[in-house]
Design goal:
72 residues, alpha+beta, SH3 type barrels, five-stranded antiparallel beta sheet, Ferrous iron transport protein A
């Protein structure tokens, strides 16, 4: 499952990334494999998505969130 598919309040554990270039940026922001992410808010039109990861809130575009694969 991709992070972009989660609903508000759902959580998941980062497994891997589908985009190498994007993965470097995401890992620099705390989205590391094994980290739990919680979807806190989704904008009215579905973009961006606010998640909680590593104890802080991070906003991602849906395109960016779709590159994060979660454990099922």
């Amino acid at each position: 499952m991709k992070l972009s598919q989660l609903k508000v309040g759902n959580r998941g554990i980062v497994k891997e990334f589908t985009d190498l270039e994007m993965s470097v940026k995401l890992m620099e922001m705390g989205c590391l494999p094994g980290e739990e992410v919680i979807v806190e808010r989704i904008a009215p039109l579905g973009d961006p998505i606010a998640i909680n990861v590593s104890g802080y809130q991070l906003s991602l575009r849906k395109r960016e969130a779709s590159t994060i694969i979660l454990h099922s």
